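dumping these here so i dont lose them again. two proteins, back to back, each one seq then structure tokens. dont judge the mess
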Amino acid sequence: MSAPLPDFPETVAPTKADVQLAQESCRRLAKILSRRRKKPFRLRVQTGNGKNGGAAETLSVPASAVRLLAEILGEMAQGNAVTLIPIHAELTTQQAAELLNVSRPFLIEQLEKGAIPFRLVGSHRRVLFRDLMAYKQKTDHRRLKSLQELAAQAQELKMGY
């Protein structure tokens, strides 16, 4: 079942302090992840600092969630804003266009051409996030292939690239 996405979830833009903390946390978490692959992790979450004895709780977390956390920290460490969207989420055409960084009319043209699957809810088009990401991956791959071909041609013609 698809879940409507009325608005984008909150986007978290890291502060300078967040970037520094994310860099350190990501580095340490990557080291831990390199040692353990599939077993659940036990994480200790503590509020406040250890000196003041803040409340602490230990959680069991799937390894896949810890890998996702490492990716989030990696993006934050680079100063990137992060938003988490479920793969089964349904997007409006405006939301989909914003995610692809294209105009809404261009996106609708792609939908009507059949390049991206969609469904109608009344007279409104809805796009699954996973279908949108599949389209993006396909177009990114084609774009990269074209750039590689152009670079190879430039080298053959000794254009200094």
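---- next one ----
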Amino acid sequence: MKEKFMRFMSGRNGVDELNRFLLIVTLICYFVSIFTNWSILYSVAIVLLFYSYFRMFSRNLYKRSEENRTYLNKTAKLRYKWNAKISQLKQLRTHHIYKCPTCKQKIRVPRGKGRIEIRCPKCQSTFIKNS
């Protein structure tokens, strides 16, 4: 069965970042339409689902990759900021992040070191903070 599916999908687009986004928006529209009884959102969810399946099973790989590349280019800044925030939240468990009082450079200091003197790598000024 797995081999049949692999043969069927060979030469087809499959799931890419734009399809993942479309499927997430489809699910959100569907669940909101269930709880609010807005039939327009249900219709939007059905149209997005059909479009997502169309993209998934399409054999026009060039056109689908261009659509995906356009989507990735338009969302690059948003994805970069999101990943930076996630990374910063993960680092908060083990590090403090301070700003230099003179040049506003962000400085990462490990937690649990007590009261320490921090030297800014950019402007070389020093300040004291609790770690």
